[in-house]
Design goal:
Helices cover about 70% and strands about 0% of the residues. The chain is mainly α. Helix 1 runs antiparallel to helix 2 and helix 1 runs parallel beside helix 4. The protein contains 6 helices and no strands.
Length: about 160
Amino acid sequence: MYQYFANKDEIIDVLMDRIMEETTAAFGAQLEQSVAEGTFLKDAALQSQFLAVLDEYRDILGSLLNDAPHLALAAHRSVRIEERCRDLLRTYVTLNPSVIGPGVDLDALLLVLTVSYREVGLEYLRRDLRDRRNQLATALYDMTMGGLAGTATRGV
């Protein structure tokens, strides 16, 4: 393997790029499907799917986060997922302006959503919170998308 790569860090970089490409495609498809089916912003299913996508790569990502944090999920690695999510939400709000309240700063909202999902995803992997996936998905929905749509399952 080392004949193709300069060192193990380069191998990990290529592996992480592949995982991020696959994750971006999978989560992007789920986002698009939820918008097409009219379930976007309705419940925590999308947030649960987000955590399930992370579970597919848990062994690799969890190891990197816990054993080699300097190589793991630096912010630049999640840029493609975040850009796709922001684009989809921006498009959705443009087509359905009533989904956010008057005067809501969409750019500020997108920043909060981006940081929230990234950090929850990292902690979900780092601390192996699979047994709390549904509760985390519901809380993430309530604090972000449910609050935006006014459909939080509990008062936030």
